[in-house]
Amino acid sequence: MRARTLKRVRERHEDPYIDADVTPEMLIKSAYNDLKTLDKENADVVARHLVMVARLLVEDPEKAHMHAISASRRGGRIALTRETLGITAYTIGDFALALRELKTYQRITGRDDQIALMVDAERGVDRPDKALELGRSVDRTKLEDSVQVNLAIAMSGARLDLNQPELALAELEIPQLRAEKAFEYHIPLYYAYAEVLSELGRTDEAATWERRGDLLDEAIDKRDTAGGTDESMGIVTEYEADDLPTADRAADEAGDE
Predict the structure, then answer these.
(1) Could you tell me which residues come within 8 angstroms of residue 35 by beta carbon, excluding any fewer than 6 positions away?
(2) pLDDT tens digits along 223-255
(3) Which CATH number does the domain 9-110 belong to among 2.20.130, 1.25.40, 2.30.30, 2.30.29?
(4) What is the sign of the dihedral through the CA atoms of 98, 100, 103 and 107?
């Protein structure tokens, strides 16, 4: 008797509940346009699941991930659903799945905008050497500033994984570190730089950069509280160690633009 070939059985998945108030129109138009290859009924369901991902990602990432799985199963050839599933997988710590989905997204679109998460996911599966190789495989000059910053942080983390603090510091010394105007994505860059300086025993410098992160965070919070979030507005910064801006001054300077 011939041995039976075992087929891989797809893991059972039940679609999570979608809040009654959620409509497809809540998905931003550009994202909904990405679903145009699906029939209208299916596209609407996928859109509602994606809205639920956005609604739940911070407060309930596990449930958000379930919605991302549902969206991907209904629209597996859509780059947006694969990207979303990769992001939620990363958020819950399933780094192998995050890598698979984000690589698929990268292959479909030819875009490298999720490269930082991919590098960090390689770290998550204990492959820091592979993380560095992956990070070096892209042309950083073609990445948006925020992506360059996040990639530098991920690459620095991989260097720390390999017990290379000096090289970890070098990974963070990118033009954005001393940019004339700082944005919200600079905050983790400042903190990461402070962490590596501390690792190297340069505690005074570490304290300076940590304070810069704190002040920028305060200034952005004040700006957003006063007039609503405008992510395109940078905070004017100073980089002399003995002349750091106060949160009030930085916010006022940004408001004068």
Answers:
(1) 43, 46, 47, 75, 78, 80
(2) 878 765 555 556 666 544 344 444 444 444 444
(3) 1.25.40
(4) negative
Q: Between the CA of residue 161 and those of 11, 148, 247, what are the distances in Å?
A: 33, 20, 34
What does the pLDDT average to over 123-138? 98
Q: Other C-beta atoms within 10 Å of 145: how many?
A: 14
Alpha helical stretches, state H, the chain? 29-33, 40-56, 61-74, 79-91, 95-109, 115-124, 128-136, 145-161, 165-172, 186-199, 203-227, 247-255
Secondary structure in 3-state letters for 113-164: CCHHHHHHHHHHCCCHHHHHHHHHCCCHHHCCHHHHHHHHHHHHHHHHHCCC
Q: Write down the pTM of the prediction.
A: 0.84
DSSP 8-state secondary structure symbol assigned to residue 27 = S
Nearest residue to 73 via CA among 82, 64, 60: 82
- Going from N- to C-terminal start, the domains of the chain cover 9-110
